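user: can you give me the structure for this one chain? tokens are fine.
assistant: on it. calling the predictor now.
[tool input]
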Amino acid sequence: MTVKLELAAVAAALSLAAMPALAAPTASAPDLARDADAVIARMMDLPTVEASYGAEQCPADLGDQVDALVARRGFDALDAFRRDAVLYAVVVCRTFDDPRAVSAARRLDRDDTPPPILASANMVLLADAASRNDGKGELAALERAVAADASQVTALPPDMYGQTVEDLKDDPAARTRALDLLRGLDWPTEDGHDQVDNDWALVRAQLAADDGDMTRAGAVLDRASSPHVLLAVAQDRRFAPLWPQLEAAGRFDWTKVLQTALAKAEEQARREPDNLKRAAYRVDHLRSLGRRDEAIAVGAAILDRLQAGEAFDDVELSGPMLVAIQAAVLGEVGRFDEADALLARPVAKDQLTQNTARAALLLGLDRPAETLKAVDAADASIASPFGLMWMDELRACAHHQLGDEAAARKALDKLRKGWRDNPYALSGALLCTGRDDEAAELMIRRLRDPALRGDALKAFRDGPRPPVVPPRDAELDARRRALVARPEVVSVMQEYGRAITVPLGGDYAGGY
């Protein structure tokens, strides 16, 4: 599940330590200046912390003290150092999406602001733009932050910037700028290098191929190792000139590619035993290789530790994802009650991922009333437009199963309105409600759109079915197979790509 970009400013010590010594009190407002000095002194005494994901970073009373100071008459007349230091304190003391932090960040976004503070302010502005899916605003803030202090950008997980790349999908030139900027940074983590070599490389190579520059496209993909990325390359006719050399190099040997990815995840998990994302990748790779008993055992061991209260580095970001993958594997072997119970037990504050995954499970089991309850229990406040549309897809399908066509149509209308934010969701809703002709028209539209084509081609990928498939999921898959076999759809698909069969299960086999 995709959530809103979550960025907060880095700790006060990072930037305030670079400030000059406190100036003499302002003659016209000595009391205000002294109060500002007191706030600044408290900020400088805060322990240095790393970039956070929406958590407040200073004591509540200090945050209130800072807000009161900004609201006082004469604040704007303070000398620039004191005024900016206090505004920076607002950025540090308030969450990234707090209007007070955004307002302070806007005031700090000036060329004469010290670079570390300027970078922190623009990280907040980046998050604010992302909350509105303003790709150009995100790119402008990202460029300002990188120019001021790139280390603040690379201090955050690289997948945090995926929304910026996605929000620029309708502006190829701006998207190219963002990708070249992100791929050119000195990432200090394996995840950063993985993004440079894989997900970001794929989009950059697509843009290069659209410009007819196959030399650049091939060079950008030179280090790609992700099964998802290589499968996308193997299907997209934009990359047809590269297919022979990639095939000859064994990079389309799908079992080998996924076994290599599994070995990498296992090695990383040994080095990072407290990282849940590594565990989730191991479970998912084993599942996709058909080794479901091993996948379940690996996931269960980690989840037992988690539920026993053991600490992990990334519970909030990766815990719900691990639970959702583990539940998917349990479902594929028919252990639906266990999967449902697992999803119903929260492992993090995130009330979105597990509830929507549970709703999808219940929908497949033909339990639509419970599906709607699970969707309603999901936290829509942290959902991106992509996630909100997934929720509406579940609602449309559940209402249709219940015979409430008015409610199903209402959800479908919302999906049609924002279809480019999540074409999967509209496609799935059209199929589950029996609107096959419209689903075919949508597929053709997606295939003809360069920014959406790669995801659309996933529907033309086939692989082994799981041992057990819930009744409604089987019905939906049959509709998908009929959709991708329609002559008018196949004709368009062959203009832009090719259908392939892979020996992999899970999310690698098919889509809609």
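assistant: here you go. The longest strand covers residues 461-462. Confidence is low (pLDDT under 50) at residues 1-23, 49-56.
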